[in-house]
Amino acid sequence: MKTLASTLMISLSLIAGAAQAASSTDVPTSKTRAQVVAELQEARAQGLLSNGELDYPPVIASTSSKTRAEVEAELVAAEADGTISRGELDYPPVSANAKTSTTTRAAVEAEYTKLAGSGQLPSATF
Fold first, then answer.
1. Would you say residue 81 lies in a domain?
2. What is the pTM assigned to this prediction?
3. Which UniProt keywords apply (predicted)?
4. How many domains does the chain have?
């Protein structure tokens, strides 16, 4: 019985391997060698290829429409406004000019209870 099972497993694996090899050679390629070489040369010309580990991933040059002075002015304005986050303790940054609420918790609870009673909000207990 073991011999029969082993023979079947070996024959099935050989048939599957032959079928896979036959199907991979039957599929036509969508690009010619000349097209691939042309794409390679174009990528080299644009600097999109890396050579070794030191330049991976390739650096893509970015362009900016702002001058250095404009960026520095934005930084100074953001620091003056207090919207620059420094570390984890002051995240998310809150503007120094942000308005604080003058409504008390009791007033908010009363308003919520009123709206829940009218059916505009789901009811909740405080």
1. yes
2. 0.29
3. Signal
4. 2
